[in-house]
């Protein structure tokens, strides 16, 4: 399938929308009341610090809703305004945030049902409106919806589309796209659907394994078993690693994406010599600014003397999990919660430790004077951060005076 030509044709179609519908003013009120916070604004203006009683809050200097997510949410709300009577669907959670997704459900925006791990599009009919989320949709899904005669509202973030364009460039030169990401993550599923040959590597350790294979060869069966589900059909590590290009899921750890890019560059240079490097290797910077800013701000915050850290964001949000990783690496007691409601009391907090299931931690809030670091992922509204801060003040007996 010529994915580039398909996207070009789709974008010209009258049933396809990738800009708002001019209802910005109507949705501005909902966006403001549901997602923005005057307390957070106040903290931002006060050098990202708020002290009440024996609690000092230190906010990361960049956190929360990125413009790509804000744009996607506003577009979804505008879609309801623009199509007041049509059935409206979303192919996936628009972003990884439970309150935003609940809000959409309340507006009668339905999620495509998933049966036995597969999306069931059978209930969607001609004329239905289907919203594609901020992290995009696979080209096969877009084609299916187009064939069904749906109206498509595409909120895919331009940073994500930039990665798709990169993958198209790899394909044009018959390169294999090495995608740093999680093969099951919707964004990576979408990105790999535009590739011809691809291999998804999760982390530096996997990248090292692949690079070692490039240089020294290895056990082909073991390679294919290790990357089962993470490569294109018919992928052959003995043939398909001669020409490679780097791509990434936009929310991965920036430092790791860079390390992986450098590792492949050195490996290819070692294998084919410096003068052949550009012939065998392609890399473009596709790390999203928002992810980068949030990670840089977190790096600054975790250097401070903190008694604990609260990281707020959806449990399946990749960029939030990476923020949590950075905190854990510094040995800080860090709690990843997806909603302020997870803070049950001063003794109990329901949180998700890295790589584990949700559990309850006891005695999480220390006695006496404390400094609490707070950050949130790109899909978390300021309102959720405000509510978490208010809860901490309440539990420590420090009322908030705004
Ligand atoms: S994190 Fe970056 S790529 Fe993802 S929606 Fe936000 S701006 Fe876009």
Automatic annotation (TrEMBL):
Transmembrane segments: none annotated. It catalyses: isopentenyl diphosphate + 2 oxidized [2Fe-2S]-[ferredoxin] + H2O = (2E)-4-hydroxy-3-methylbut-2-enyl diphosphate + 2 reduced [2Fe-2S]-[ferredoxin] + 2 H(+); dimethylallyl diphosphate + 2 oxidized [2Fe-2S]-[ferredoxin] + H2O = (2E)-4-hydroxy-3-methylbut-2-enyl diphosphate + 2 reduced [2Fe-2S]-[ferredoxin] + 2 H(+). Its cofactor is [4Fe-4S] cluster. [4Fe-4S] cluster binds at residues 66, 157, 288. Its EC number is 1.17.7.4. One of its GO terms (molecular function) is 4 iron, 4 sulfur cluster binding. Pathway: Isoprenoid biosynthesis; dimethylallyl diphosphate biosynthesis; dimethylallyl diphosphate from (2E)-4-hydroxy-3-methylbutenyl diphosphate: step 1/1; Isoprenoid biosynthesis; isopentenyl diphosphate biosynthesis via DXP pathway; isopentenyl diphosphate from 1-deoxy-D-xylulose 5-phosphate: step 6/6. The keyword Oxidoreductase applies. Binds 1 [4Fe-4S] cluster per subunit. (2E)-4-hydroxy-3-methylbut-2-enyl diphosphate binds at residues 96, 185, 250, 317-319, 379. It is an enzyme of class 1 (oxidoreductase). This is 4-hydroxy-3-methylbut-2-enyl diphosphate reductase. It comes from Lyngbya aestuarii BL J. The gene is ispH.
């Amino acid at each position: 399938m010529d994915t580039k030509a398909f996207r070009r044709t789709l974008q010209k179609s009258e049933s396809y929308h990738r800009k708002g519908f001019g209802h910005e003013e109507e949705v501005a009120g909902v966006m403001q009341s549901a997602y923005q916070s005057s307390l957070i604004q106040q903290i931002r203006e006060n050098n990202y610090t708020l002290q009440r009683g024996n609690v000092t809050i230190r906010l990361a200097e960049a956190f929360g809703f990125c413009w790509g997510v804000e744009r996607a949410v506003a577009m979804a709300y505008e879609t309801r305004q623009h199509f007041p009577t049509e059935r409206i669907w979303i192919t996936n959670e628009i972003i990884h945030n439970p309150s935003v997704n609940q809000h959409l459900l309340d507006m009668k925006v339905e999620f495509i049902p998933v049966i036995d791990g597969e999306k069931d599009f059978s209930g969607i009919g001609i004329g239905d409106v289907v919203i594609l989320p901020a992290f995009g949709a696979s080209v096969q899904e877009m084609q299916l919806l187009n064939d069904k005669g749906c109206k498509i509202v595409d909120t895919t973030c331009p940073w994500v589309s930039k990665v798709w364009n990169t993958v198209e460039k790899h394909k044009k030169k018959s390169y294999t796209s090495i995608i740093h990401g999680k093969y099951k993550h919707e964004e990576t599923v979408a990105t790999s659907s535009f590739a011809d040959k691809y291999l998804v590597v999760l982390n530096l350790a996997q990248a090292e394994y692949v690079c070692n294979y490039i240089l020294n060869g290895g056990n082909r069966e073991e390679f294919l078993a290790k990357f089962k589900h993470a490569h294109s059909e018919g992928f052959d590590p003995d043939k398909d690693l001669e020409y490679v290009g780097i791509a990434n899921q936009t929310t991965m750890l920036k430092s790791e994406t860079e390390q992986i890019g450098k590792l492949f560059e050195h490996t290819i240079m070692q294998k084919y010599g410096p003068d052949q490097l550009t012939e065998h290797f392609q890399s473009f910077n596709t790390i999203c600014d928002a992810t980068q800013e949030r990670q840089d701000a977190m790096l600054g915050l975790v250097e401070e003397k903190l008694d604990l850290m609260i990281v707020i964001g959806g449990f399946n949000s990749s960029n939030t999990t990476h923020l949590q990783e950075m905190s854990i690496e510094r040995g800080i007691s860090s709690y990843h919660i997806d909603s302020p409601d997870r803070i049950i009391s001063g003794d109990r907090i329901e949180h998700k430790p890295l790589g584990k299931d949700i559990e309850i931690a006891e005695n999480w809030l220390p006695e006496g004077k404390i400094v609490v670091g707070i950050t949130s992922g790109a899909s978390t509204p300021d309102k959720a951060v405000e509510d978490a801060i208010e809860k901490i003040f309440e539990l420590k007996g420090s009322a908030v005076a705004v």
